[in-house]
Amino acid sequence: MANNNGRRDFMGKALGGFTALGGLGALYAMKRTWDPLPSVKAAGFTTLNMKEYKEGQLVTEKWRGKPIFVLKQSPATVEKLKKEKPGDLKRLIKVGDAHYTVCVGLCTHLGCIPGFRPEEQDFLCACHGGMYDITAQVTKAPPPRGLDIPPFRIDGEKLVLGEEGPEYKKMLEDGITMPV
Amino acid sequence: MAHFDENARPFSHKWLNERLAVDTLKRVLSTEYWIPKNINFLWAMGMVLAATFGLLLISGIFLLMYYQPNTQLAFDSVNYTIMSEVGYGWLWRHIHGVGASVVFLIIYIHMFTGIYYGSYKRGRELIWLSGMLLFVLFSAEAFSGYMLPWGQMSYWAGMVITNLFSMGGLHLNGLVEWIRGDYVPGQAFLNRFFMLHVLLVPLAIIGVIVLHFGTLRIPHVNNQDGEEIDFEEAAELYKAGKVKESKVIPFNPVFLSKDVFVMGVYFVIFFYLVFYHFEFAMDPVNFDPANPLKTPTHIYPEWYFLWSYEVLRPFSTNVGLIAFAFAQVIFFLLPFLDRSPNVAPASRRGLFKYWFWALLIDMIILTFMGKLPPEGIWSTIGLVAALTFFGLWIALPIITSKEKKL
Q1: pTM (predicted TM-score)
Q2: How far apart are the CA of A100 and the nearest CA of chain B, in angstroms?
Q3: CA B120 to CA B118: how far, in whole Å?
Q4: Residue B165 domain-assigned?
Q5: B353 CA to chain A: closest CA distance, Å?
Q6: pLDDT in tens, B215-252
Q7: CA torsion through residues B376, B377, B381, B382, sign
C-alpha cells in the first residue's frame, strides 16, 4: 500500500505541476491580451512644425490621444526666467532661436486638463485646484510635480514627439521630467 | 441505484421527486429555513437588494440589444437609439440608471443595519466579509457601467480612476496603460469595460450572492436583541404547531410575505423615481459626448462614491492614495476590530453607540463635501471629516475592548 500511495502522490504532483504550468501560460496569454495593440503603439508619434507657433499663445496638440501644450515664449519671458527661476528655464525646449514650453496637458495629480490663463500667464487645474507657472512647473499642490514633458527629438525646425533625442534624455537624467 | 417507480407519470410530483428531490430542496431552502420573529423591516433589505439586482439584470439585457461598445457610436446608441427609437428603450435605461443609484442606498442601509445590531460578530464574520466583497463588486459594476454612455463624465471618470493605479509616487504608467489598452481611454478601454460590465463582474456578483446566502445558513440571521436562539428547539416547537411560543418562523411563506410587503412599498417609491425623477441618476455633464481634449470644470463621482472620494481629496497624491486604500479595505476588518463579545444593538453598547452614530454622520458629511468644490471652508470641513473617519476606526478596538460584557 505504501508503494501505491507513493505512486499516487507522484501522479498527483505531476498532474498538479503540469496544471500549474498550463495555468501560468494561460495567465500570461491573458495579460498579453490586455496589452495595448501594436497598432496603438505604432501610432504613437506626432511631428510639430515649431515655426507655426506665436509667442504667448497656447496651442493644444495631440500625441497618443493626450493633449500636448505648446507655448512659444517671448525673449522677455526667457530673460525674466533667467533672473528669477533659472531652474525652470531648463524645462523649456530650444528649437532654432526660440524657447518653447512643450508638455503633456494632463495634471500630474489625477489627469485632468489644466486651463491656461493668458492674463496670469499660468495654468490652473479646476479639478483639485493645482497650479503651474509659465514653464508648467508646479506652484501649488496637490500635483506632485510639474507637467510631464513628452519624449521628443529635435529635427531642424521640427519636433518629433514619441522619439527620444539627446536633449530629452538629458532632461530625464537631470530629473527635470519623468518618463510618460 | 435509486428506486424509480415505473408507473410514475412523467413530470408528476412523484416523478420529479425521485429525480430531483424537489420536496427536500423546498424544505431545506425555504419552508424549514428558520428566521427569528424578533426582527423589523430592516431585515427585508436583503431581499430588496436581490429584487433590485433582478431589475438591473432584466433592464440590462434589453439595453444590451441596442448598445454599441464603440467610441464613435456608443453615445448615440444610448442617447438617440435607445432613448428615442427603441420602443420603451427609455424605460429600460431609466430603470437601469435609477436602479444602479438606489441599489447603493439599500446596500448602505443593509450595511449599517448590520453594524448597528452587531450582525458581523462571532459566527457571522463570513456573512460580513462576503457582503463586503459584494459591495466591492457592485462598485466595479457601477464604475464599468458608468463608462458605457461615453459622455464627458464617463471619459474623465475613466481617466481619473485608472490613473489611481499609477500608485502616485510609484509612477506605474505601464500598469495604467495596460489596464486601458491604450495611452488614454479609447476603443480598447471601452470594449474591455463593456465586457467587464456585462459578463465578468455580473458573473462574479451572482457567485458571491450565492456564497452570501450560504454563509447565512449556519449562523442564521441576527435579531433585534442579538439573542442567541436555539434554532433547532424553536423549529421543533413551530413544527409541533406551537407557532406562538416558537421564536422562529419559516423563510417561506411567513418571512417572505413580510419581505414582499416591504418590497411592495419599496417598488412604489422606486418606480415613482423611474417615471418622474429619473434625472437624479443622470449627470447633465454626461450628456456631452466624451472629449479627450476638454476636462469638465468639476469632476465628481456618483453620490455613493463621494465619501471615499472626499477621503482622497484633501491630501497630497501619495497620502491621498493611502487614505483612499485605507477607506476601501477598513470595513472588511470590522469583525476583527470590534473587540467586544456583545451581540446587541448599538444603543445598549455604551461608547459604541456614539461610535456608530459618529461614523454614520461623518460619512454623510464626507458625502456632501465630496460634491462641493474643494475651496475655502468646504476644504477644511472635508479635511476634518476625513481625519475623523480615520480617528474613528483607530478608536474602535480601544473603545470596544473596554466595553462591559452584557
Answers
A1: 0.86
A2: 20
A3: 5
A4: yes
A5: 35
A6: 999 999 999 999 999 999 999 999 999 999 999 999 99
A7: negative
